[in-house]
């Protein structure tokens, strides 16, 4: 009996009227955990019942604690008939199971009903007493921490990064069980919600066990997904990166691990050997369907593409996916000849990492994007306890990814993710990541020892090392155009680099980045089963190829040479396939200047045609020039001879040259002759190609003052202010079925995405200057003629004046960035040790701090003043305060409840007495920030409280009355946000970071006036403190030693 | 290609003040879009009409969802669904409960019933305010009325607590509730020149001095069910007002009063002769208004009577406002020197308020 769960039901408020006669409600509460149920008394005739119950105690195994959600049901008592349910609250008690997270869950939770939505709130207190014999129970994995964040969480240090963990569990979907025909929609929805909650608990526990086996203590980059396979069942799967994390508590432990990047570099014994090359290819090995599988488990493995930059001038001329396929074949041949320079010496099956950002020095080289897809036919899962089929499917794909990485001369895959797209019985499984060479020092001992041997004792050049090719130049499996690195001049780099990870902090970037999207639709005949799967798998390589071409074209059009955060989503529908690739384009200083795009016509004799072509060419050139100006891309001008020279120039000379060019402020003009040299040739040989060129030019840049990217941070902007706005936007369009051609489809889809972006820019115009970060598009095809696009992103304001300042030379910028990063890393231990170790030698850090603050130029106070409301509003809020105070003193009933809220909220007074008027002190409801990023600008995360992973279903049979589909979904998403915020607040947190809406499945039947929607969200609940407040605390209390854990402890007690 | 669904949900609810105003003013989405286009927003932002349409729809949907909460503003503060900064919450509430001068003049003093609600069509046509907006304003009046009608304590405080309105707006609502409860006639033609502000001013004075709440703890019968202390006029006080009748009924008293006033004002008043000539009429008018207040019907006509019996006669003689003030001050004060008159306190309670009202009502 290793745990005791204690629950207290305090009160309810804003309950719905359940008795029409009295306009009141006789509410009571059922508290259920596992098979045990407790009930409160009935609180008669009130919409604001005060139950103030005893502590309900559940004595349970910790295995159950991990799997089961606490289920709280609010009901209306009825003497003569069955009690009516008002709604439910599911509370995941997992955060209470590890010592460093929350110690109590206490607060107001929205009471949720799948038919009516939120109906009032209930105040609940939950505690867990764990007994100390946890280790005996091998079925549970209490104590393993989970993070959605795809980097090492801010207040931790990675001791060892163990590697990939994955697990999946399957079950029958309650919605498709026979009993569903006789039960109410509400019962069916609740069964589903409960089952998924249970399954994700189980999944998390199982992953935790694997982590313990690996001797880790945490999972970072935890990504859990649901596959609603319909008739064939429900799959919950998760991947993550097992780590051993150390809480940063003493500066001594902190410093050696990841202090300044430059220092790290110097210490690092790792340099890539000269034999390494870099690789950029769009490479597609096709595995044809194996006949044996066709019988029961139909499976088609789809050509996989390895992206990197395309060789210069190649795409158009070589044309066609067939060439790519050919290339792939040669690649595999090469691979067999022993292309991989590394001897693999691995203990883990898959050297994958779901992380997208790394401790400095961790990432040595990046090869390129590797991805694999396979089309499967779903069949009923016969035995839920043996999910072997699904496991095998994923194992296959992962194997493929691994071999692609190997072909790129890499021993690891970073920024790894998996996804599915399901339509009826066809399922596309996709996996992608970035092939990379990692510094073995961080990995589990001996995992990658093979690579270590090859390293030379030489310093890695800062800011460009990761660009250097990891593969063998002579055995390149695809044609790539290599040059010597423009930064260090010593190693080879590809002309273009694609990755799925975030931009490394130490990367040297010129100008700003921008969101680049490739969008594509392909019609497909409706077909059944195998025929359908075959048709899809035949289409896939063409789509991948075209998506890649589009990305490449758009990248060149922007005058940039690298993509980060690349995410390609292929969605399957009844009669079409959609491809959407999003990435953030940047100009890496280490890579060569991209050539222009050159258009070549097929019929050179036709005069008017020629003219047309040259007109197009001019337009393209203009666009490139405009984009370069827009994104402030002014790379140092390096003379031809150096570029062309096969011999590496002496280091000093190149450096000299660079510094000269850097000091010149002139924007390099677009040189056409230069463009000719390694321009990207687009051949216009048919109308399709024409369309492509046109579509290239239709993408409108965001209005001035707006930037967008899909990575964590925007390259070139580092002066964020504290105002953030996370949002979700959903659009569904209906295609007219008459003229469904590929072109029309493409145009519709393109317009849909572009209009959506335009709407976002308009809506958020008050935040200018601002940047949309982590823009995440999801496409689904809910019905024949419907396309649904869901976007989640965060808008962050930044300081314009400082932006100008940063637009100097890139070297200075990178320095600044490095130093701000140092500030981030160092400030904390500094404060901690300030008095306990007053004489601690810390000169470099202080210097960094100072330089950082002087660099950032703007005083902290100025940065903090973000929200500027009209004076009218200010007055309003002040008197509203007064009134509330009065109201509280008058109505004693309400005082009690407000007090509880404040206690639960970390923003309550007691924690930081010195802070300047906290924003939420004005309101009884504490503000909870939500962001898809792993950080909060201008603030420091002091504590991770646990993972938030919630699944909701909402259904309506009165769609019109609820404002149609838009009204229905708008309300539902607002409710989901509210429930996430309430859970975070109850844990004692004030923000969710790494928030993601993983699923938003919307189905409607307007004829029946019905609609249903499923939403799955996750993120990390955290406590953050504004940096300005931290400073206040540290300056005003110089004599008290206050470790962060203690500060966090205060919050929840 | 048609948009089936198009939504935007922020973690912090976006409130566009301009769109909120259009929504409050009762414009349909398409009208609002047209108005926004006309404001030049497209040129400023480079947006398209489609974007504007979608944005407006979004805001309207949000406001529609918020409206339920705005009906009970404390709910807006405690609800969890919309995360809105406190200053924005205050703005939402304040604007929602704001009303149009033209509209309030039409409904002021009318019974807030279904019957009046049916007349909103006419009011809308007459004032040019959209029917939707009229309905919102009317419903606001009625909602506030229903909540505070039966409540003890200060009317303004009650309104502030239950609707979280600013002090100014709460006072206005107190006036509206007070007028609605006492059904003062404000719509007569001769009252058209008066603004809502004039009436609200009078209402405040009357609430302060003429209601049960004004007396304090309702001391005479502490256990009686006098709930609406601020809303109802003090019946006892109104009964007592009959006693003032002797000021005009008693010929000697009236003459004495007149001579006291005239002596004091001689040389100080530009319209002295007119005053002297009219004194008895004016005094009779003022005292008779007091004496009649026992009947509900006459209470309702209070303002009509004041204008007829005092404002109009003075105005026809072109009294300047300063003279009216001098006269009224002297008129009230001189009563203290009337030895035969015993109801000094009563007179002060009546005249103090009436003087304030008359001075406010006396303008063109």
Automatic annotation (TrEMBL), chain A:
GO biological process: insulin receptor signaling pathway; intracellular protein transmembrane transport; positive regulation of D-glucose transmembrane transport; positive regulation of protein targeting to membrane; positive regulation of vesicle fusion; protein localization to plasma membrane
Domain C2 residue range list: 1-109
Subcellular location as annotated: Cell membrane; Cell projection, Ruffle; Cytoplasm, Cell cortex; Cytoplasmic vesicle membrane
GO molecular function ontology, one term from the record: calcium ion binding
Gene3D superfamilies in UniProt: C2 domain (2.60.40.150)
Top-rank taxon, per record: Eukaryota
Region (Disordered): 639-670
PROSITE patterns: C2
InterPro entries noted in UniProt: C2_C2CD5, C2_dom, C2_domain_sf, C2CD5, C2CD5_C, C2CD5_YbjQ-like_dom, C2CD5_YbjQ-rel_dom
Keywords noted in UniProt: Calcium, Cell membrane, Cell projection, Cytoplasm, Cytoplasmic vesicle, Lipid-binding, Membrane, Metal-binding, Protein transport, Transport
SMART domains, per the entry: C2
Listed GO CC annotations: cell cortex; cytoplasmic vesicle membrane; plasma membrane; ruffle
Function: Required for insulin-stimulated glucose transport and glucose transporter SLC2A4/GLUT4 translocation from intracellular glucose storage vesicle (GSV) to the plasma membrane (PM) in adipocytes. Binds phospholipid membranes in a calcium-dependent manner and is necessary for the optimal membrane fusion between SLC2A4/GLUT4 GSV and the PM.
Name of protein: C2 domain-containing protein 5
Organism: Odobenus rosmarus divergens (Pacific walrus)
Automatic annotation (TrEMBL), chain B:
GO annotation terms (biological process): platelet aggregation
GO cellular component: nucleus
GO MF entries: fibroblast growth factor binding
Protein name as catalogued: Acidic fibroblast growth factor intracellular-binding protein isoform X2
Gene source species: Odobenus rosmarus divergens (Pacific walrus)
